[in-house]
């Protein structure tokens, strides 16, 4: 897997690689950047009264890691066997292991190929953030951050964490936010409103957000009065946050607009990707107080 990471494309190309795996007869995908390695199952030590998605813990090279059964998280049947696979992941500054049935292959695709789930079938409880058709089959991209928050709500963004900042003044500045996860849009709205930022405009991906900015530029001539800051996730259907940031910084009348990347993929190994596309700041989810501190630098 480390070798695969070595061939990842340069930042801002709007492309990614996904690891395809199978659970309960359906195909799913995870961004290869989140994957540390793939293992055959090892002995799992059960933890009493743990969350229903959590099988227990394993020891891996001196680290104790929780094992999450994807089938349980998705509500599908899975006969656990020695032929299953463990996907070791790292995102949101933590490591987790996910049990799946099989791991098939790695695909290099464009974010443009990924369709956002339709409101007709996704529902509020969905763990699916995107759908891609490849070789005559559909691969569902899962919201792993949402699964983690369901297991451990304290791992997400909370109003209480912002309240610890103390009494704050209200800001009339306009902030544009590109985030594909319905859960994280809700949490961002709650926490940033509590932090004093009330004028928030949400978009489900970078393409929709960029089209809005370009429309403002065309209609108004200048967007300085209408948008003062952009916050963007990285993983989004149609257009990812790196490409979105790159496009902003390439547009003559948009390039001075501050952009903060807020993503579970912000690690020391990946910070250079955001810098390459001109991001003004990068914050790892779910560090909401750090995000508020960065926002304060640009719009207070």
TrEMBL record:
The keyword Phosphoprotein applies. PROSITE patterns: CHEW, RESPONSE_REGULATORY. InterPro entries: Chemotax_regulator_CheV, CheW-like_dom_sf, CheW-lke_dom, CheY-like_superfamily, Sig_transdc_resp-reg_receiver. The keyword Hydrolase does not apply. It holds the Pfam family Response_reg. Residues 15-153 form the CheW-like domain. The modification 4-aspartylphosphate is found at residue 233. Residues 174-300 form the Response regulatory domain. It comes from the Bacteria. Keywords: Phosphoprotein. One of its GO terms (biological process) is phosphorelay signal transduction system. PANTHER family: CHEMOTAXIS PROTEIN CHEV. This is Response regulator. The lineage of its organism: Bacteria, Bacillati, Bacillota, Bacilli, Bacillales.
């Amino acid at each position: 897997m480390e070798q695969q990471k070595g061939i990842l494309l340069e930042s801002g190309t709007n492309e990614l690689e996904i690891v395809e795996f199978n659970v309960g007869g359906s195909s799913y995908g995870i961004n290869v950047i989140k994957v540390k390695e793939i293992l055959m199952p090892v002995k799992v030590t059960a933890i009493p009264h743990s969350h229903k998605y959590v099988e227990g813990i394993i020891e891996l090279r001196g680290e104790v890691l929780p094992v999450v059964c994807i089938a349980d998280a998705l509500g599908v049947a899975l006969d656990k066997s020695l032929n299953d696979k463990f996907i070791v992941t790292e995102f949101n500054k933590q490591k987790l292991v996910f049990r799946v049935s099989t791991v098939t292959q790695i695909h290099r695709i464009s974010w443009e190929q990924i369709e956002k789930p339709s409101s007709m079938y996704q529902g509020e409880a969905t763990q699916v953030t995107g759908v891609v058709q490849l070789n005559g089959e559909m691969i569902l991209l899962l919201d792993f951050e949402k699964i983690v928050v369901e297991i451990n709500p304290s791992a997400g963004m909370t109003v209480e964490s912002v309240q610890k900042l103390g009494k704050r003044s209200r800001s009339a500045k306009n902030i544009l936010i590109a985030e594909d996860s319905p859960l994280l849009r809700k949490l961002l709205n709650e926490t940033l409103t509590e932090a004093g930022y009330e004028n928030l405009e949400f978009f489900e991906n970078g393409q929709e957000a960029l089209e809005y900015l370009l429309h403002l530029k065309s209609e108004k001539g200048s967007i300085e009065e209408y948008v003062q800051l952009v916050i963007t996730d990285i993983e989004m259907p149609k257009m990812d946050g790196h490409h979105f940031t790159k496009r902003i910084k390439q547009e003559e009348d948009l390039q001075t607009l501050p952009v903060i990347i807020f993503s579970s993929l912000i690690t020391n190994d990946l910070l250079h990707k955001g810098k390459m596309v001109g991001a003004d700041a990068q914050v790892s989810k779910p560090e909401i107080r750090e995000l508020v501190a960065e926002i304060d630098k640009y719009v207070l």
